[in-house]
Amino acid sequence: MSCILTIAGKNFDVDTFISVSKLKPYKISYKGQPKFKTKPNSEKLSRSLLSIQTSKAGFNNLNKQISDTVRYLKRNKDKLTHIALTKEIDHAILDFGIDLRIDREKVLYQSDTFPNELLKLAGDLKLDIELSIYPVDMQEILERRTKEGSPKSA
Fold first, then answer.
1. Distance CA 32, CA 85 (A)
2. At what angle do helices 62-75 and 116-124 cross, to 10 degrees?
3. What does the H/E/C string look like for 20-49?
């Protein structure tokens, strides 16, 4: 997934928020649940959260992620205003996931810009913006770590 809106809080009542806002998350997690479903005795979540996909564009297409997300924010502006009205929300973040383009041969630096339209919409809705950069071969790295028995986190 490429751009995800995550809304979270220590005392956040996810179910009430969904009922009031009418937003449709693809993932809901509750405070106190194990962080990893495969490890029920692992560390527990310290906050409740919901995640909404605002774009399905690939990690190699930030411009499409941005245009999809602007469209999503505009279409759902009334629903998203509940974020600022819900005091139990500690943070609401739009996370754009992209590929690392730096290869130290052809590409020596990476620079990405967010247009003011997105920044204004996000700011008006009290949304932070995050850019998460992943290695192009992340899936291979994770698979190798799994085979070697190393930690699965990136």
1. 24
2. 40
3. HHCCCCCEEECCCCECCCCCCCCCECCCEE
pTM to 2 decimals? 0.86
CA distance 43 to 133: 26
With cut-offs at 50, 70 and 90, classify the pLDDT of residue 6: very high
CB 34 within 8 A of CB 41: yes
Structure tokens at 21: 């806002």
Residues 6+ apart with CB under 8 A from 40: 34
CA distances from 109 to 68, 102, 105, 112 (A): 26, 6, 10, 10
Structure tokens that stand for 128 in this block: 């932070």
The answer to whether the beta carbons of residues 76 and 24 sit under 8 Å apart is: no
Please report the pLDDT score of residue 39 as a whole number. Answer: 81
pLDDT tens for 75-133 read 999 999 999 999 999 999 999 999 998 888 898 899 999 999 999 999 999 999 999 99
| Strands annotated E in the chain | 3-9, 27-29, 48-55, 91-99, 128-134
- Residue 35, burial from CB neighbour count under 10 angstroms (0-12, 13-18, 19+): exposed
